[in-house]
Amino acid sequence: MVRQLGRSRTRPTRPPVAAHAARPPASAPGERRAGSAVDGGPDGRRHGRRSRWSPAAAIRSALSGRSVAGQVFVFQVVIVLLLVVVAVVALVLQSRHDSTMEARNRSLAVAETFANAPGTREALSSPDPSAILQPRAEAARAATKVDFIVVMNTEGVRYTHPIPDRIGKRFVGTVGPALAGGTVVEEITGTIGPLVQAVVPIKAPDGKVVGLVSAGITTEHVGGAANRQLPLVLFTAAGGLVLATAGTALVSRRLLRQTRGLGPREMTRMYEHHDAVLHAVREGVLIVDGDGDLLLANDEARRLLALPDDAEGRRVGDLGLPADTAELLASGRVATDEVRLVKDRLLAINQRPTHLRGGPHGSVATLRDSTELRALSGRAEVARERLDMLYAAGAGIGTSLDVTRTAEELAELAVPRVADFVTVDLFGAVLSGEQPTAGAELRRTALAGIRRDPPLYPVGERIRFVPTSPQARSLREGRATLEPSLRDAPGWQAQDYELTSQALNYGIHSLITAPLRAGSLILGMVTFWRSENAEPFDTEDLALAEELVARAAVSIDNARRYTREHTMAVTLQRSLLPRRLPDQDALEIAYRYLPAQAGVGGDWFDVLPLSGARVALVVGDVVGHGLHAAATMGRLRTAVHNFSSLDLAPDELLGLLDELVAQIQDEAAEGGGAHITGATCLYAIYDPVVQRCSIARAGHPPPALIRPDGGVEFLDVSAGPPLGLGGLPFETADVEVAEGSRLVLYTDGLVESREQDIDVGLDLLRTSLEQAGPSPEDTCRAVLDSRLAARPSDDIALIVARTQALGPDRVAACEVPSDPAAVAEVRAALTRRLTEWGLEDMAFTTELIMSELVTNAIRYGGTPIRVRVLRDRSLICEVFDSSNTAPHLRYAAMTDEGGRGLFLVAQLADRWGTRYLPGGKVIWAEQPLP
């Protein structure tokens, strides 16, 4: 229809008389009357009287189907008839389905009730079950209105039946599931015809099936209810059809009245007249389809937009219109009196989509010449720019959680759209994440401007504003202050006469200062300066500055809070990590710890000296970031310290640590606190005497070993489950480590990330280890230089330990017979070895310690007994026996004959203790070397 209207404008308009003459003389009366309503007389002029619309003729035209209303009526009646037929069929089918389901449910309920009724189970074990059950079954059948209730034994032989001669015969139906303790509901053809029946078991107290009960309803009774409802359904459908037809007739009558009984051709001629009216109005009208093509433009729209003659059918963007106008017309969005500048005209555009009420996709736009509004367009543009700037402030300020950067973003955004120069001054406490105190000095945090040499305090300057300055007044009153003319502002000039004089000579003539307020907290202030723009700031600029600063204050306060939390978390984490490595000679160690880019995590490491010159290496990771992860890491690290003092094997230590993590998780669940997602740990013990490393890990990445020849391998250590899962044991792997090898322990942040799989990370780590220098420091540097192009997204802990051996010249060992006389020989051998080592001064004390330890082993321990003395950073005496009984230190009474040996050892030795082995125990004592 729309395209037809567009064509009617370009072709010559045929006089109405021609259309009247071209009509066949044998046309219907209704058609002739319709034509007379719009056509003129034989001379081409309109009659002086107006033709009347006859309802009778219009109804006949509608029923004939020639009018638009008649065609609509016939179509609607057909649709209603089809819907009624479909509804009747659906109702009948649904009614029958509901009746069948009712029969299934009723038969099942009756069967279950009778099976569980008192006396039913007992009657089955009587001499004549039918004599007892038949009357009950018939009474129940009559009461429940089912067609039969049959009780049978487990072989399917009936005890009851509505027809007595069927008693004693086998039941027709499925009984297998019921014999297994289930129920059966089925539709079959039984002895009384097609029926729906249910079979349920009769169970003894021990659950054994002792009989079966079946109840059912014949199909004749099932379908009877549906057949009885059919007349009502048909009557209701007939009534609905009548009502729908009547409603359709009313709608068609209304449509007939609105179209005046016109047929399609008369409607076409009517729209031709409408087309003429469309081009006669003095308001531009444009119709654009959903693809942005111009369908129609009346004469006024062509004049206002200066459209070419072939504009219709072309895209709106190709008509030479301004970009914003073309975008609006092609978008199809709703617009109300939006002003657009088109050449020298200001056009008010109203636009509505055409598909809101079922029409075709597209839009209709009307144009009014509103050139008199040109004076207002400048102010409207300024308002739009300010709104755009506030929107940009919401998106551009606060992109990071850094206080200084957020202040810089505010200053950069406001220049030059609000001011020529912008300064941001914050209290010093805000920069460190704390709350500012009243009267504290401010620090210039950001400065941005159109030039780089303004005579203003530089960034980093500490400032105290005098009470008469606008800045001090703004801080004191908590609201923005406007100084339109700085030459007439003695309070501002009193801040620094020399600097303010330079600013005035520079051209700075007006300012606005606004406090950065976040709730009741004032974080600092922002000052807007104007120099190049000759117009001073006004009240509209003041309102804009207040809004801009208010939005920025929220972001700065968020950054301040984050800085405080981050600082607290980092401080806690640093306090929990080792400050220095302990002194020991078994391993040469270098380490690195890199916190994550955002927040602190739960990665930790430790180096723990153990008895017998051994050293334990620990690397762990608590999943997550923040204070809770750091605190949990501290608890686990403390636990590892405590467990390691017991000289436990790596797998046993991880088992205890696993129980601790599970306990922490339970505490968090009960208290509603943050839950630990998981934790991993690797625990390794290196023995420099035998050059063996015992390793166990709980869900942690495998350690790497760099052999003395430079080869790299990842040690095959059973991974074990992460800590806290429980239920699975951990395994210890013993690895022979040559002297000069390097053990590399790390957390998963080094080899795994969101962008990289762990297998790829392990391959890259192997490559960097192969290219690393010989020392642990070189290895750490090479790994981090090759793996970290930017700050990591997760914490990284890295330990590189080069192994050293405790040679045979520093170890003395022998076996001791289980004879008290052997103690003297041990003392003598010990004295000789101490003399060789140049430790004669320690001989007496060492002999006492060794005598007591060996005597205890002979008296209370088991064979074999071995003695070992190590010269490391301290002198270590060890006595092994096969007994697992641990000695205890106690105070001996004056009358006790024994009990003073270990007390003497504890007094003479620097440290002493017991270490359990798979075949016994070791009692050791250490003395510092002179």
Tell me what you see in this structure.
This protein has about 950 residues and is of the alpha+beta class. The protein is built from 26 helices and 30 strands. Helix 1 (about 1-10) packs across helix 10 and helix 13 runs antiparallel to helix 14. It is flat and about 135 Å long. The termini are far apart.
Secondary-structure map with pairings?
Layout: H1 2-10, H2 16-22, H3 29-36, H4 55-64, H5 68-115, H6 120-124, H7 129-144, E1 148-152, H8 176-179, E2 184-190, E3 193-203, E4 209-218, H9 219-259, H10 264-280, E5 284-289, E6 294-297, H11 299-305, H12 323-331, E7 335-342, E8 345-353, E9 362-369, H13 374-396, H14 403-414, E10 421-427, H15 428-431, E11 442-449, E12 462-463, H16 470-477, E13 481-483, H17 490-493, H18 497-506, E14 510-518, E15 521-530, H19 539-576, E16 587-594, E17 601-609, E18 615-625, H20 627-644, H21 650-671, E19 679-687, E20 692-698, E21 704-706, E22 712-714, E23 733-736, E24 742-746, H22 758-770, H23 776-787, E25 796-803, E26 811-816, H24 822-836, H25 843-860, E27 865-871, E28 874-881, H26 901-908, E29 911-917, E30 920-928
Antiparallel strand pairs: 1-4, 2-3, 3-4, 5-6, 5-9, 7-8, 8-9, 10-11, 10-15, 11-12, 13-14, 14-15, 16-25, 17-18, 18-19, 19-20, 20-23, 21-22, 21-24, 24-25, 26-27, 27-28, 28-30, 29-30
Helix pairs in contact: 1-10, 4-5, 4-9, 5-9, 13-14, 13-19, 14-19, 19-20, 20-21, 22-23, 24-25, 25-26
